[in-house]
Amino acid sequence: MALVARGDGSATVDMDHAADKNSESQPCGNPSTSTSDKCSGDVFVVDIGVVRIDDKMTSHPTPACPNHAPVCNSSSHTVFANNKGVARIGDTYATLVHNITAVAQSTVYAGD
């Protein structure tokens, strides 16, 4: 089980666009971080909505790349909010180069 990710900038998303071999924006530069953004409006963990499949992360620019806000594309297969899988540490946005690596809560977990 992993800690549940919350929206509104409360989860850290590590990015390494240069590692994305399938991206047209491969020369985007060094690894950086961004945050979660969109989330459930009525399912909360410690007063902040949970991130679910298809919720967007914060739009972010990187050198030589257009702004983009990928959607969450991996989640729990057993825990749902609004009929969508709940995202956790280790889940991703769009590709493996947008990884949820930290959440600002330590009490709510979701299984695989």
Mind explaining what this structure looks like?
This protein has 112 residues and is mainly β. It has strands at 2-3, 11-15, 32-35, 44-45, 48-49, 60-62, 65-68, 80-81, 84-85, 92-93, 95-103, 109-110. It has a single domain, classed as Tumour Suppressor Smad4. The chain is built from no helices and twelve strands. A hairpin with a 2-residue loop joins strand 4 (44-45) and strand 5 (48-49). The chain is globular and about 40 Å long.
Based on helices, strands and strand pairing, what is the structural class? Answer: mainly beta
Strand percent estimate:
25-35%
Helix content: under 10%
With helices defined by DSSP (H or I, 4 residues minimum), what is the helix count? 0
> So what's the CATH class?
Mainly Beta
Number of strands: 12
How is the main sheet built?
4 strands, antiparallel
For the residues shown, what is the average pLDDT? 86
How many structural units, i.e. domains?
1
Per CATH, which architecture? Answer: Sandwich
Can you list the strand order of the major beta sheet? 3-2-11-10
Write the layout of secondary structure elements.
Elements: E1 2-3, E2 11-15, E3 32-35, E4 44-45, E5 48-49, E6 60-62, E7 65-68, E8 80-81, E9 84-85, E10 92-93, E11 95-103, E12 109-110
